[in-house]
Amino acid sequence: MVMPRDFCMNFEYVKVLSRFFFLSVKLARNLSFNIFLRSSQKLAVNSILLTRKFSLKKIVLASNGIWMYN
């Protein structure tokens, strides 16, 4: 059985569209994951900076004979 030419062209068109859709979904997922990683890295850096800030404050106050607990 020979398939009509229009059917074959439509099939190729559907294959290209499905591949494009798959790649766009994959790209969107990777972008959202990268944004999540960046925001979590910023959060981690901010928490480290806050910890260092409070630790430095404790050391300065302790050297003056005053103890501060967070």
The parts where pLDDT drops under 50 for at least 5 residues are none
Helix content: over 70%
The fraction of residues assigned to DSSP E strands is: under 5%
Mean pLDDT score: 72
Number of strands: 0
Largest sheet: none
Shape descriptor reads rod-shaped
Q: Give the SSE order as H and E letters.
A: H
The Cα radius of gyration reads 29 Å
What's the total helix number? 1
Structural class: mainly alpha
Distance between the termini: 81 Å
Describe the structure concisely for a colleague.
This protein is mainly α. Helix content is 84%, strand content 0%.
Give me some keywords for this one:
70 residues, mainly alpha, 1 helix, 84% helix, 0% strand, rod-shaped
Topology (SSEs and partners):
Elements: H1 5-63
What do you see in this structure?
The chain has 70 residues and is mainly alpha-helical. It has a domain at 41-70. It contains 1 helix and no strands. The protein has one helix spanning 5-63. The longest helix is centred in the middle third of the chain and has 59 residues, at 5-63. It is rod-shaped and about 80 Å long. 0% of the residues are buried.
